[in-house]
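The following block was generated as part of the benchmark described in Methods. Ligand: BJW.
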Amino acid sequence: MRIAVLTGAGISAESGLDTFRATDGLWERHRIEDVATPQAFARDPALVHAFYNARRARAAAAQPNPAHHALVDLARRHDLTLITQNVDDLHERASQPDVIHMHGRLSRALCADCGHRWNAPAVMSADDACPRCTAHAARPGIVWFGEMPYHMERIWDALERADLFAAIGTSGNVYPAAGFAQHAGRAGAECIELNLEDSANARDFDRRIQGPASVTVPEWVA
Ligand code: BJW
């Protein structure tokens, strides 16, 4: 069976990483306009780096949970395309092969001048020089609002070929990811949501499984 899975912040919540839209989530404590847009980075790169340096440190200290491990098992038994909106590396550290990071990765740096990418140090600063063009314009390799998510051609193709689409731990508020269930469903896939509660696009799913991902994902995969 061909399966496409989309994961969001909820799958890493039980590893101790903050989600965005919970009442005590990241967007309660930081304004999107201050830390997650190209304009914010142009205005105050130090503030943006501080936000991502702190998240890089927390992600490095976190461990994959049973939901991450269950998806590795799923990949052993099926033709799985794993798409994540998460910028942590918990899928990789669970030994998941071939993870598509549509919103980038904390572990990557990107030159705001020439577009070159390299491995980010634990602590980044806007003074870091690009190893290719030497401009002092190092930014986190993250997709901010108004920027084009990565690997979209490969993702649309996987959604169109999937027999089954599952969204795990994502609130369905951010596009294009929030449109994936509708896209896969129209192309013929059965769509399943695994979440603590109904997402904003819950009506696009044929089936919804409620509960913590560390319990529901291993049960669903078994
Ligand atoms: C659990 C759990 C447990 C908790 N077990 N579950 C108007 C209409 C439509 C679209 C737009 C519009 N205006 C602007 C747009 C486009 C915009 C957008 O969607 N805006 C909306 C807010 C309306 N999108 C973009 O700009 C994107 N780019 C784009 O569209 O490009 C097109 C383009 C065209 C032409 C020119 C240029 C571009 C880019 C979006 C980038 C998103 N970036 C962020 C931050 C950067 C990454 C980072 O810092 O980490 O990505 S925003 C943030 O939200 C982050 C996440 O990846 C993303 C999704 O969040 P997620 O994962 O869903 O987390 P939460 O917190 O929302 O939800 C957690 C869920 O888990 C909840 O449901 C819980 O219940 C659940 N849960 N514990 C199971 N234990």
